Amino acid sequence: MHYICLVHVDGQLAGLHGGEGPLVVVRDRRVRDANPAARAKKIDIDMGLNEARLLADGLQIVEYDPDQYRADAEKLWDRLADFSNYTEPIAEDRVFLDLSSHPDPATLAQRISLMIQDSRVAMAPCRWMAEAALTDARPYRDITGNPEAFLHASVMDQFLGVGGPVRDRLKALGYQRLGELLELKPELFTRQFGREGAAIYRALRGMDDHQIEPIWPRASVAFHQETEGATAEEEPIRLVLEQLSKRVGDELMRTDRSGKVIQLSWETEDGRWERRERTFARSAQSPGSVFALAKLLLNPWPTEPITCLRLRLPHLATAVRRQTGLGVKANGERAGELESVVSRVAGAFGNQSVQLAAAIEEPRRKRLLRVWKDATGWY
Predict the structure, then answer these.
(1) Could you tell me the sign of the dihedral formed by the alpha carbons of 154, 155, 159, 162, in that order?
(2) Please, is 298 exposed, middle or buried when counting C-beta atoms within 10 Å of its C-beta (0-12, 13-18, 19+)?
(3) For domain 147-204, which architecture applies?
(4) What is the assigned CATH class of domain 4-142?
(5) What whole-number distance in Å separates Cα of residue 59 and Cα of residue 291?
(6) Is 33 helix (H, G, I), strand (E, B) or coil?
């Protein structure tokens, strides 16, 4: 089973505006977020602006501006990325985490709900169920133990695993609760809905094809590994870090990327996560260079026993590899043979006829086009 966790922080956007009295952040004339004073007036997310005005006299209205909330959102995303290698923000205040690889995802999800102030956390076998369960997560709800009970208690409008027209058709057929659909055979779904029938059948059983995408931090690679029991000794911790560095370095070499920022996190025996981050002058792009830089983050040495290490390199770039000489891969007789050929070519066509790739200057037009593409996204 997958363990998909959805974290929502109530009031994160509205809280940035301060002030007294009810306040809402509005997008397309619908409530995007509300402060505690507005929620006390029964104003909730996705409510129409006119309805919100009727519920609260003197309601302060702030238009949604994504740039204004970005910095605080990234702090939240960075913090949640410590708990999972698969972190997918879907809004400034709402983030999906895949906790399936953790040995005790339920306990970890509960810790997240306690550690992230004003958060609501829902965990389910798939992402659509997590979204549907979030409404009743005050502050935490886990339906992985009995998803069938959740379906029997849920009305058709909560079936977020399918589109609106499919939900409307199911209601027109007389189905009121999702649990009623569990008793139907797959052939009936196919007969009624064609190819969409298989998707309905799978969604009801938590087999959501929309997996959590590891999109935060951007262009990153990360792996985690548990220690053999809680330990503060250097040798076992360095061994785990070396193994993680090899996995990260192999992935960098496979994808031809490198990074200067290294984040090292660890989980302590009491379940807390600590993180250190450092930006280095030179890039890491191999297992050896990753380990050499990552182990510097263990200074000063952690004081509490560690149960798990996570190594992440965010903000990766294409590796810059320069040829340092002709015949780098040749040795012995092959090196001499290559030098002889290069000498004959240079003698016949001039010394500039054979050059290192790194020595060839790119035309100014191409450099300008690259800068233009980076700035605008198109040529």
Answers:
(1) positive
(2) middle
(3) Orthogonal Bundle (1.10)
(4) alpha beta
(5) 55
(6) strand
Residue 288 tokens read as 């050896």
* Type of residue numbered 331: N
The reported pTM is 0.69
| DSSP SS3 for 257 | strand
Given 2.60.120.620, 3.30.1490.100, 3.30.2170.10, 3.40.50.2000, which CATH number is that of 221-318? 3.30.1490.100
Q: Could you give the residue ranges of the DSSP H alpha helices within the chain?
A: 36-40, 49-55, 66-81, 105-115, 127-134, 147-153, 164-172, 186-193, 195-204, 234-255, 287-294, 333-349, 364-376
Taking the CA atoms of 127, 128, 130 and 135 in sequence, report the sign of the dihedral they define: positive
Would you list the DSSP string of 171-196?
A: HHTT--BGGGGGGS-HHHHHHHHTHH
> Using CA atoms, how far apart are residues 120 and 141, in angstroms rounded to an integer?
8
DSSP line for 282-330? EEE-SHHHHHHHHGGGG-SPPSS-EEEEEEEE-S-EE------STTTT-
Question: In this structure, are residues 310 and 220 in contact, taking their beta carbons and an 8 Å threshold?
Answer: no
Q: Are 89 and 216 in contact (CB under 8 A)?
A: yes
Contact 200, 189 (CB under 8 A): yes
Boundaries of every domain in the chain: 4-142, 147-204, 221-318, 333-372
The mean pLDDT values, 10 residues at a time, for the chain of 379 residues are 93 89 94 94 93 93 93 92 90 94 90 92 95 92 94 93 88 90 85 81 83 84 88 94 95 92 89 88 91 94 91 86 53 61 75 70 80 66
